[in-house]
Amino acid sequence: AVMIPSAINAEQFNFVLQSFEVALALFIIVGAVYFAWLSFHEHILGGYFVALFGVVLGFGTYQSLVPFFIALTLMIMVLELTINQTGYTIKNYIKFGGYFISLLLLGLISNLLINKVIDVIFHIQATSYLTQLINWGKLPVQQVLRTIVGGMLHTFFPRDNYHSYMLFIEMIALLVLFI
Questions:
Q1: What three-state secondary structure class fits 154?
Q2: How many Cβ atoms sit within 10 Å of the Cβ of residue 9?
Q3: How far are the Cα atoms of 88, 114, 121, 151 from residue 91, in angstroms, in the given order?
Q4: Which tens digits make up the pLDDT trace of 114-140?
Q5: Residue 178 burial by CB count (10 A; 0-12/13-18/19+): exposed, middle or buried?
Q6: Which segment, 11-15, 28-32, 83-87, is predicted with the most confidence on average?
Q7: Which contacts qualify for 94-101: CB closer than 8 Å, 24 or more apart?
Q8: ∠ CA 165-168-173 to the nearest 5 degrees?
Q9: In this model, does residue 164 exceed pLDDT 80?
Q10: What is the pLDDT of residue 167?
Q11: Which residue from 24, 140, 148, 175 puts its CA 20 to 30 A from 134's CA?
Q12: 63: Cβ–Cβ under 8 A, 6 or more apart, which residues?
């Protein structure tokens, strides 16, 4: 429900050159997290590999899906904590977290290797389009953090007609639910 009014959807579907692929990859990541959760609880090894395939496919489609995967995983961990308050130990949470961290790391490493192989086979060189967009290490840390905080504030408290206050309202409702 939180994803529907999210500014991510509005901005992605406005960017016509990639909207379908990214929307599909969003659903693939959701499915991958579901299969990982299922394989963890039901001890189905095949589910982990299906999840890994989905994660690699999703990360390879759009790198912004990496934080989406992390947020989704954290959300599931919070839900597990609230639903299974008495049935889980710290050891269970460490195993659960490690399971998803391994999926994240294997997905990132696999994606990096696949990209390198494709770059070598097709002689693809990095262009200024990508290198100019990477500001980590180039700009002062304070400026980068201000940009991130500014983006978060704009997401929750929009100053235009393009975004919605619904995400902020849903976040408040979720906080009230968890308290």
A1: helix
A2: 15
A3: 8, 34, 44, 36
A4: 999 999 999 988 777 766 776 767 888
A5: exposed
A6: 28-32
A7: 96/40, 99/36, 99/40, 100/33, 100/36, 100/73
A8: 125
A9: no
A10: 76
A11: 24
A12: none
Give 162's DSSP letter.
Answer: S
Single-letter amino acid, residue 164: S
Enter the tokens of residue 175: 């906080």
Q: Write out the two tokens for 88.
A: 């889980």
Q: Tell me the average pLDDT across 13-35.
A: 83
Per DSSP, the residues of 63-89 read TTHHHHHHHHHHHHHHHHHHHTTTT--
What SS3 class is residue 164? coil
pTM for the structure as a whole: 0.74
54 is written with which tokens? 């989905």
* 66-to-23, 63, 93, 173 alpha-carbon distances in Å: 14, 6, 21, 25
37-92 pLDDT per residue, tens: 999 999 998 999 999 999 999 999 988 899 889 989 988 888 887 777 666 788 88
> Once rounded to an integer, what is the mean pLDDT over residues 158-176?
79
